[in-house]
């Protein structure tokens, strides 16, 4: 197990010493490493070392500044937009993997969250979003890429919730919703 550095402070060192002395007197034998960590954590008001560590991790998360959003590369947005026709439907399948991902993000975003579909229903939804003539390719790519999950028998599909990249919202803002 890797060592995690945790800050340790006590508002009153005298109270800390008294608490440790009392806890050591109550212990029938010399405490081991983990028990000593628990003794120190209890001496400063935590239930145990795990609670002290969880408190520290929560403080770190709260103190962490929000990561600055990445700048949107509008040149890439324009490249990706070219794979869609004027009505917002996918008309060409990209050769580049990064361009395919952008197109799959668009298709994923157009599937409602927290719903399940049969294979037939999902195929129909994908057919309305594409002009390639290969909705099966798109379904496979969405499953293989982790945007959709399916049961082992392939009878039921559902959208996997993921955090889309920043550029997806910019791409969606320039694409009309695909109308069949």
Describe the structure.
With 180 residues, the protein is mostly helical. The chain folds into 2 domains: 51 residues, no CATH class; 101 residues, Arc Repressor Mutant, subunit A, CATH 1.10.10. The protein is 51% helix and 6% strand. The protein is built from 8 helices and 3 strands; from the N terminus they run αααααβααββα. Strands 1-3-2 form a 3-stranded antiparallel β-sheet. Helix 6 packs across helix 7. The longest helix has 15 residues. It is elongated and about 80 Å long. The model has no long low-confidence stretch (mean pLDDT 86).
The shape, in one word, is: elongated
How are the strands of the largest sheet arranged? 1-3-2
Residue windows where pLDDT falls under 50 for at least 5 positions: none
Total discrete domains: 2
Salient structural properties:
180 residues, mainly alpha, Arc Repressor Mutant, subunit A, three-stranded antiparallel beta sheet, 8 helices, 51% helix, elongated
């Amino acid at each position: 197990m890797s060592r995690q550095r945790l800050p340790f402070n006590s508002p009153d060192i005298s109270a800390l010493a008294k608490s440790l002395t009392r806890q050591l007197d109550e212990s029938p034998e010399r405490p081991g490493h983990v028990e000593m960590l628990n003794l120190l954590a209890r001496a400063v008001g935590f239930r145990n070392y795990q609670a002290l560590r969880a408190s520290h991790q929560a403080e770190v998360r709260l103190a962490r500044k929000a990561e600055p959003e990445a700048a949107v590369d509008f040149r890439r947005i324009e490249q990706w937009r070219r794979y869609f026709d004027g009505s917002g439907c996918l008309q060409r399948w990209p050769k580049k993997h990064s361009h395919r991902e952008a197109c799959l993000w668009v298709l994923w975003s157009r599937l409602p969250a927290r719903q399940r579909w049969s294979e037939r229903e999902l195929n129909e939804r994908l057919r309305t979003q594409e002009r390639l003539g290969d909705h099966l390719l798109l379904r496979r790519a969405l499953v293989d890429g982790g945007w959709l999950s399916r049961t082992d028998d392939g009878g039921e599909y559902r959208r996997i919730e993921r955090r889309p990249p920043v550029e997806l919202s910019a791409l969606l803002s320039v694409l009309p919703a695909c109308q069949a």
